[in-house]
Design brief:
- The structure holds 2 protein chains of 2 kinds.
- By secondary structure, chain A is an alpha/beta fold.
- Chain A contains 8 helices and 9 strands.
- Chain A has helices at about 45-50, 85-90, 100-105, 125-135, 155-170, 185-190, 205-210, 210-220; strands at about 5-15, 20-30, 35, 60-65, 70, 140-145, 175-180, 190-195, 200-205.
- The mean pLDDT of chain A is about 85.
- Chain B has a single domain, classed as ABC transporter involved in vitamin B12 uptake, BtuC.
- In chain B, helix 1 packs parallel to helix 7, helix 2 (about 30-40) packs parallel to helix 5 and helix 7 runs antiparallel to helix 9 (about 160-180).
- The model of chain B is unreliable at about 215-225 (pLDDT under 50).
- The chains are: A alpha/beta, B mainly alpha.
- The interface of A and B includes residues 68 and 82 of A.
Amino acid sequence: MSETILKVKNLNVGLEKEEIIKDLSFEVKERDVLIILGPNGAGKTTLLRALLGLIPYEGEVVWKSKNISYLPPQELVQRKYLPPMTIEEFFKFKDVGEEKIFKIFKEVGLDLLLLKRSFGALSTGQFQRMIIAWALVDEPDVLLFDEVTYGIDAGAEETIYSLLHRIWKQRNLTVLLITHDLNVVYEHANNVLCLNKEKMCYGEPFEILTPENLEKVYGTGIKFYKHTHK
Amino acid sequence: MEIILALIMGSFIGAAAGYLGTLMLSKRMSLVAGPLGHLTLPGIALAFLFGFDVSLGAFVIVTLGIALIWWLEIKTKLPMEALTAIVFAVGVAVTFLFLPEEKTIPALIGDVSQISPIVVTISVLLSLLVIFAINRIYKKIILAEISEDIAKSEGVNIKKYNFIYLLCIAIIVSLGARVVGGLMTAALVAIPACTSKNLSKNIFQYSLGGADFRRAKLPDWDSGF
């Protein structure tokens, strides 16, 4: 039986006098993949930021591990107007040796030649893999991803999710992931947290992702085709 | 002798300003150096009137100006460039109310004719201090530029590093005001950084290029010599 790695109790977050998250409680077990679902403005990103202590909150957030890596949505990562920085230099911000960088680059399927490439010259897919590699450098126990496939085409999106699934298995990670893509939930998540300012549903995808619950979360009828891979 | 001293001082200030400029360019703050340079004018005017060092006067006023801009940004939610424009305009207007006419040119474009070995030593030490401080915060500021959330989750105290960064700007702008005057301070930070950005392939070359002594702005000989 896995131990609890994250305990959230009565979490309340307000930004500029507006209540963003209201009385949210849930737990995450070690090695879980928790997908956080919800419409725009539901408080998903705010939740991750509160869990990391990046913004003030009320309530209780208790992590068993302190080794947590976070990747914000790609639109919040600046790639223009930066100095002419190579990927190698970016990784050296973390003071890690070359061998470790090489190993992680191979793990995420990136060509080592990209290390000499400029930070702004990567394609969206390459950039996302690179940022995943960046998150893995510290050997985290927990990964928090916000909109990991933002701006990526459908084929590359599937590849990124497969990569995350492989990393999760190989490294025994706990993953908290925000996505708008309902199709990835069945394939990758142990648990789903449906959020719309407050907890609308929580549990295993097959049990809780009913059309009624989805309508409650999104406020409109959502057609959801369950599929499994042979 | 004065020429040698001026060259030494100009080179060190220029190197520190160029290095800092590479960071300012990355934060899209190069333009701010201009108004902040103008903000030295009330301090320079006071220094001329009461006979103390121009860099000291400039430093006090620029620091107060930066603190005022920082405070107004929190209170009004107006963008920093707009607040900088307001504070700088007030500073310039106040300056010309009491700046003696014969001191206008040195205040605007600098005067290195009255430098002593002590002033040069202090300027060189302060420039080295700025280079050291910028070197310590460089990676963290760039990481925060890439993503504040990533930087914070890596344990970077953004407020602390921004404060050090602003303090470095205040020092460099004040020192620069002695060499090139309030009018031209932006040249010290913007030109080496822009040149370096266009010539560099990586951050090492870029930051080193900004601090390159050969591109440091030389003192304005016509104003004092």
